[in-house]
Structures are given as structure tokens and as C-alpha cells.
Amino acid sequence: MDIKIFQSAQEATEEAFRLLAAAKEDGATTFGLATGSSPEGLYELLRASDLDFTDAYALNLDEYRGLPADHEQSYAYFMQDKLFKAKPFKETFIPNGMAEDPEEEVARYDQVIKNHPIDFQILGIGPNGHIGFNEPGTSFEVTTHLTDLAPATIQANQRFFESEADVPKQAYTMGIASILNSKQIVLMAFGEAKAQAVKGMIEGSVTEALPASVLQTHENVTVLLDQDSASLLSH
Ligand SMILES: N[C@@H]1[C@@H](O)[C@H](O)[C@@H](COP(=O)(O)O)O[C@@H]1O
């Protein structure tokens, strides 16, 4: 793992942009994208850039079950709003939160990932160490699946909804095995609320109890931190 600690989230975000642009320059055509506040600044930089994605593919990590693509809190809506409207891709993919048959949806998305192996994957991290929506305890072997959200995740994501009751309780997510297949991974984590998870991910043992710790086993991972998220690291 390449750990880079910056003075601010903004500086770390600028580094994420540089890494993505360099990967693109080197031929990356398929980008794994994440939602949440961590990559928002990156999407802002991409929108303002002159990078052209009309020959590129975007695959998102996850989607809430039960939210249609035009729901303001759906990840499909987030991606349109924050990136795709301004920066069109050749094709974009995201699990369908309204799919009638979860098994079919999971199989469909696994096929999408198989057809479009990811060159460059952006990740955030949940305060409990989740990546995508792979919650603590999820097997490292699984690919796309429907998961029950951990109570801590429902609580953390409540800020985007009117009340806790409005937060979906399930989500589709790429699995750890799918994420590890990406050629290059860049994880962004900012703020004190992430410090414990960041410490576990980098300095703890590789354990399903802290899903992001599996990234220690991948050969091309860069972790971009600000002072607060890095504050519990031993050196
Ligand atoms: N499923 C998403 C994750 O992909 C994201 O990394 C995490 C952190 O979000 P934030 O960046 O807003 O802290 O939250 C959500 O639960």
C-alpha cells in the first residue's frame, strides 16, 4: 500500500485527480467509481478538466435497494448529478436498485464486471471499514451481492435522508473479490470519523471484520489521507 498524507482533503483530492489522469494517459478505459462525500471533490475536478471520457466505461460500486434512479439519494442520481451530466462516458453501469429479482440483478452485474474489467477503481471507506457496501463480516470471496446494511452504516448515511426510517436497509454492492480484480485502486478517506477505520485498514491484520484491510493484499493500492483521517497512524 502506498500511503500519502496531505495537509488537506483538497490536496489529497488533487492527487487523486493526477493519478486518474495518469492512468487514463497510460491507457485505462474502464473506471470503477464510488459515491459518498469522499470522491465529490474529485468529480468536481474531473468536471472542470478537459479530460474526455466519451470512449471510457464507468462501473459504480453499489446502489441502494428500493431507490429508483431518479430518487435524489440514489447513487444513480448522484453520479448523473456529480459527473455524467457534465462528462459523458461511452457507457455507465450501476446496479439497478429497483430490480424485481435480486438474484438476476446480481448475476447481471457480475456479467457487466466480467465484460468490463476495471483498470482504475476509486474507493471511499465507511467509518466501520466497509468498502462499497461490503460490511464487516462479509466474505472476501464474494462478488456482487445484495447485503443488509449494518446499523452503523444506516446511522452514518442518515444525514442524507429525512429520518433514519427513510434510509434503505439493503443495497447491491460489488463484492470484495470484484474490487480486488481492479488493476489499480485509489482510496480516499478524510476527517476524524475515518481515523479508526484507516488505522485498522493499514496497520491492523487482514480480517473480514474490517473489510478494507483486504487492500493490504492488492499490489497497486494508493491511500490518500488528510491530517485528521491519518491522525491515529503510528508513523
Ligand atoms: N457505500 C458508500 C461507500 O462506497 C462510501 O465509501 C462510504 C463512505 O462515504 P463518505 O465518503 O460520504 O464518507 O459510504 C457509503 O456507505
Automatic annotation (TrEMBL):
The active site is at 62 (proton acceptor), 128 (for ring-opening step), 130 (proton acceptor), 135 (for ring-opening step). It catalyses: alpha-D-glucosamine 6-phosphate + H2O = beta-D-fructose 6-phosphate + NH4(+). Keywords: Carbohydrate metabolism, Hydrolase. One of its GO terms (biological process) is glucosamine catabolic process. Residues 9-221 form the Glucosamine/galactosamine-6-phosphate isomerase domain. InterPro entries: Glc/Gal-6P_isomerase, Glucosamine6P_isomerase, Glucosamine6P_isomerase_CS, NagB/RpiA_transferase-like. One of its GO terms (cellular component) is cytoplasm. It is an enzyme of class 3 (hydrolase). Its EC number is 3.5.99.6. Pathway: Amino-sugar metabolism; N-acetylneuraminate degradation; D-fructose 6-phosphate from N-acetylneuraminate: step 5/5. GO terms for molecular function: glucosamine-6-phosphate deaminase activity; identical protein binding. Catalyzes the reversible isomerization-deamination of glucosamine 6-phosphate (GlcN6P) to form fructose 6-phosphate (Fru6P) and ammonium ion. Belongs to the glucosamine/galactosamine-6-phosphate isomerase family. NagB subfamily. This is Glucosamine-6-phosphate deaminase.
